Structure formats: structure tokens, C-alpha cells
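Example 3.2
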Amino acid sequence: AAEGSGPVPRDGAGPAAPERVLFPPTFSVSEIKNKQRRHFMFLRWKQQQRKEKLALKKKRRKEREALGDKAPPKAVPKTIENQRVYDETTVDPNDEEVAFDEATDEFAPYFNRQTVPKILITTSDRPRGRTVRFCEQLATVIPNSHVYYRRGLALKRIIPQCIARDFTDLIVINEDRKIPNGLVLSHLPDGPTAHFRMSSVRLRKEIKRKGKEPTEHVPEVILNNFTTRLGHSIGRMFAALFPHNPQFIGRQVATFHNQRDYIFFRFHRYIFKSEKKVGIQELGPRFTLKLRSLQKGTFDSKFGEYEWIHKRREMDTSRRKFHL
């Protein structure tokens, strides 16, 4: 695209006003050989796109103000989330079958407040420093949890010892190349057991603008978008890790947010700025989970019966199909 060498006079009428430079329809930034000029032209093109988008937005807003009550409803943008393929296992809160299952499943004693969660957090054999620090920080998030470092002890031997000591859940943090990359959550004594792939782990010191260390208050628990029967079961597993009597005076909240079958965990504290305004302050740690399998009973890699296994080639045929 030509930059323009200045205004061009029109038949003796004097210098003309400078015209706005427009990119031709066939213009491609990638055709520019010089790297610095290519970067400059790309930024200029992005700036032009933003100006056009802003002008169109202002024009539409003025049209809506002029029409008043006769203005058409705002268009809802299409996203992968709201174009989701309907799942026949979506949970209806008023479904009697779902209510009966909730009253008789493995987590019913917890929701009936008959049991208090007691969690054992352990690691893979010979964990490295990052995994050890993550387990220690996770223990400060989940009340009544205890960290035990494995020393060559098999999970099949750990589980009976946990049951004998009245632990209600077992969390195993696996690692690969010194990085935590897996989480096994087993509800005791009769299961189920969920296996997750873990990614995007951030410890407290790696989070910008983090708050002070969390207190010992029992946090609130928020579960978002666990809509199917499978997602409902996973959400109840996460809820059963925390005592059922949150202490709101601590202003701490643990969030499990499901989006496109990725479960994002965040731990925040409320900051009340005034009577009407409230902010949140992240405490950490943070991580992302992806469900790989859900197994009946406690952990058994050889003879365990699986309720659900993620099969990529069969299940990931559509980008708009989600399972949680």
C-alpha cells in the first residue's frame, strides 16, 4: 500500500486536503518483507479495525436511542458455549429420579451432615519440590486435610489404612518432569474414583496481586456449569471435600468453574470496599482439571469397573459436544 507522497494539486486549485490512507482489498501484511515495517503496518491495520468497530457500535447505539421502545432486541453473539449440542443426560433439579439418586448415593451422608470430611493428600513416589509445595498449599485450601509423602507405598496399601483412620477422601497428585500433571480423587470407603489431567498450575508466589495467606476459616464452595449427570457427580465429589458449614466471616470462597469440560479452580477472598461495592482478591493456588475417567469403587487400575472414560477419537468429533 502506498503511503502517499503528500497532497496532489488539482488543476491549479492549490494543495488538496490530505486523504485518509486505505488499505486495498487485496492487501496482505505478510507480503511485506521488512520485519519492522510489517509489524508497524499490522499495528496500523489493527488500529483501523478498532476505529471502524467503535464507529459502528456508536452508530448502532444512536439508532437504538432514537427508536426507543421500538428498537429490536440486541443480537446474542454466537459462541461455542451457547451453541452447545443438547445432552439428554442434562439434570433437571425437579426430577424425582435425580432426587432419589442424590439421597442414596455415596455422598448422601455428607450432604445430610452425618459425616465430616477428612482428606488425605499424597503424591506420586519421590515428588519434587514444586509438587510438594503445591500439596502444602492445597492443604491450606481444604480444611481438615493432611499431607503424607509416599515412600514407595502402593495405593492399594494406602487406601485400607485411610479407611481405618476414618479418612473420607484421598487425593493423589501425580507429576511428570517435576511438574504436577495429574490428580486422582477417590471417595472412601466405597468410591467412586475420578482421574483428572492437571495443567496450568500456579503457586501463590507466581500469582500477581495475590492476597495474604488464607485463614483457617471454612470457605464457601461455588460449583458452576455442572449440568449433566456425569457433571453432577463430579460436582458432588468436589463439594464433599469441604465441610458443609462455611464460615462466612472468613470471606473465603473456593470456585470450581466448568467451561467446555475444563474445570478451573480459583481460591479468592472477598474485599468489601463499601456497602454497595465488593471486590475479590485471589489467594491461590490455581489449576485446571480435565476429566479422564470415572471409576466405580476405590482405585483399581487392573480390575476396576469404569462408569465413564474419555475417548478422544470417539467423543471429540464435535467441538460443541460437552460431557460435564
